Hints:
Blueprint: H1 18-25, H2 31-35, E1 41-43, E2 59-74, E3 76-84, E4 89-94, H3 99-104, E5 110-116, E6 124-127, E7 130-133, E8 143-145, H4 154-167, H5 176-185, H6 192-200, H7 208-213, H8 217-242, H9 256-263, H10 270-283, E9 290-295, H11 301-314, E10 318-322, H12 326-344, E11 350-354, H13 360-372, E12 375-380, E13 394-399, H14 407-414, E14 424-429, H15 435-440, E15 446-450, E16 460-466, H16 470-482, E17 486-490, H17 498-515, E18 521-524, H18 530-541, E19 547-550, E20 563-568, H19 576-583, E21 593-599, H20 609-620, H21 624-641, H22 660-676, H23 678-689
Parallel strand pairs: 4-6, 9-14, 9-15, 10-12, 10-13, 11-12, 13-14, 16-21, 17-19, 17-20, 18-19, 20-21
Antiparallel strand pairs: 1-8, 2-3, 2-5, 3-4, 5-7
Amino acid sequence: MAEPAATAAPTPPKALSAPQKAMHKLGLKRDIDLALHLPLRYEDETRVMALREAREGSVVQIEGTVTHSEVQYRGRRQLLVTLDDGSDTCTLRFFSFYPSHQKTLAVGARIRARGELKGGFAGYTMLHPAFKLAGGELPNALTPIYPTSAQLPQAYLRKAVVGALARVDLRETLPPDLLASLQRTARVSPTLRESLQQLHHPAPDVALAALEDGSHSAWQRLKAEELLAQQLSQALAKRERDALRAPALPLRREGLHEQLLAALPFALTAAQRRVGEEIALDLGRQVPMHRLLQGDVGSGKTVVAALAAAIAIDAGWQCALMAPTEILAEQHFRKLIGWLEPLLEPLGKRVAWLTGSQKKKQRAEMLALIASGEAALVVGTHAVIQDQVVFQRLALALIDEQHRFGVAQRLALRGKTGGALEPHLLMMSATPIPRTLAMSYYADLDVSTIDELPPGRTPIVTKVVSDARRAEVVARIRGQIDEGRQVYWVCPLIEESEALDLSNATATHAELSQALPGVLVGLLHSRMSPAEKKAVMSLFEQGQMGVLVSTTVIEVGVDVPNASLMVIEHAERFGLSQLHQLRGRVGRGAAASACVLMYSPPEGGRLGETARERLKAMVETNDGFEIARRDLDIRGPGEFLGARQSGAPLLRFADLATDTHLLDWAREAARTMLDQHPREAEQHLARWLGSKAEYLKA
C-alpha cells in the first residue's frame, strides 16, 4: 500500500518590519488607507537657487561642493560643513548627526541641501538642513511631508504611498448624474484618482494657499466623497432600523397620559406640547422610535419623558430611564414618583430604583419587581443595563444626557427586550446640537427641540472676575444669604489628581466656613458615599444649608429654586457647555440670579485665547443653542461630541464650518444612491469606512 503523500507545512506569516508595524499602528493597512493618508505640508525640491539670488529667511534648495567638513567642540559637539555653489558659500550646521552623515558630507562631495537661510557676520548658514547627494533630475512635483512616527521614515512612507496609488482600485463610485450635480455645487476635480494625485504630488505652480485651506478642487472632491460615505452609513443605519419592529403604543384618550397632564401643577409650554405630540406619534407606530429630545437647561425635558412613559405604561408595557449619575437619577426618580406614583398605585404598578450603591436586599427586591412587571417604570444609573436586570415587557428606553453614554451602553439597554421586538428609544440632551452636527453625526436620528423656557425663569446675569477680587465675591455671598437666598460654589476638576480636586474643594470649604460665621457651608465631592452625598443635598434642598461647595457632580439635574448665585472657581478650566450647564443650576426661581466666573491667569501671564473666547461667550449669551454653536467653533466636532459617543467615525477631511454646501449635496446624494444605485453605494462605503461600515448601531 502506497504511503500517503506528505502534507506541506503551512508557510508561517512573514514577520513585519519596524516600518510596517509603525504603518499598521497608524491604521495604514490597505492601499486605500495609504492613498487617503494625505500630506501635512509640502517642500519645493523642484528647483535649485543660487545663493547670490536667495533671500535671507527664505526656505531654499541649494546645490554645491563640500569644501570643508569638521566636527567642533565649542560648547557642544557639532558638525560644520561649508558648501560652495559657485556664487557664494553657506555653512551647514548639525548638532545631531551620525557617522553616515559625515561620510556623505565629505570634502569634494556634490550636495543638495534644503533649509532656512540665515545671514550673519560669518555669512550664510543653514541649521539642520535636509540634504542628499546631488545627481539625477530634479523632481517635477512638490515633495509631500506626511504625518508619521519615529519608526516610519518619510522616504519609506513616500515610497509606500506611491506604490499604493499605483495599485489601488479607484474606479468611480459616483453615478454620472450625481457627479454632475456635485460639479454644479462646487469646483471639484473630475475623478478621485486625479484628486489624490494632485494632493500627494502637486505641481510646483500650484496655489499652495488653496491646498492649505482646503479650497482646492482636489480637496473639494475628497471632502464631498467623505461626507457622502458618512451620510450613506447614517441613512443605511436608519433604514435597517426602520425594518425592525417595536410594540405599537397607542395614545389612549382619558388614559394615563391625560390623567398625568391633568395632575401636573403647571401647564406645558407650546414647545413641550409640540415635542410631546411628535413622540406620541412615533410611539404609536410599529417602527422603533430613535429620537433625540434636546432643549436648553431647565426647558422641561423630564416632564416630556414622563408623558412618554405614561403612554408606554398605559399600553401595558415597561419603561426604563437611565441617567449618568446617581444625583441626576435620584432627581428624576423623585420627580417621577411625585407625578406618576399616585396614578400607578390604583393599577397595582410601581416605580423602581436601581443604582450600583444599593444594599443587596433592596436591590433583590427591585430586580424581582422588574422581572414580574410590577415595576412599570425603572429609574437608575448604569445599573439598569447589568446582566441580572431582566424586564418582563420593556417597550421604551429613555436615556438622559445621552452624550455621557457610549454606543455599547445604549446597545445594552436596547438588548433588554429579550424578544423579537425592539424598544423605542428616546435620548435627551441639555447640550443642544448645532444644525451642521445634527445633519451629519445625528442624521439617522429624528430630533425634537424644546426651544422655549417655562414662564417664571429669571434671566441670569453673568460676570467674569479675577481671583484677586475673591473677597468681594465672598461679601456678595453674605448679602445673598442675608436675603434668605442660597449659593453654589463650584471647584474645578484637576485631571492629574483626584486628591488635588479634593484638597482644592476642602480648602475652599474651610475658607468659606471661616468667612461666613453662622452659615452652614456644605461640601460635595466624588469620593463621598452616595448616602453622604444624599444627606448633603437634602440639607441644601431643604434650605438649611446656605452655601454648597462642590466639584462638578452638580453639573446636571440639581433643582433648587431658592439658589440665586453660582460662583465657578477657575472658570477658565471648564468647557463652554459645562459652564452653561453649571450656570443653569440658578435662575430657577423668581429671584434675580447671577453667575460669577472667577478666573486665575497663569503666573505673570494672561489667559489663553480659547479660555477668553469661552468666558466671553458666557457673558454675551444665555441661549444654549448659541452657546453650542460657539462651542463647536472653538472645539471642533471631535471634542464637541466627546470620545465618539455618537458611534460615528469623525470626519478627517471635511470641515462642518466651511463645507455645509457639500454636506447638503451629500445628504441628497445618499438617498439617491441607496434608492437607485445600491451597488455603487456599497462600494463607496467599503472604500471609505472599510470594517467601520457597520458602526452605527445605537
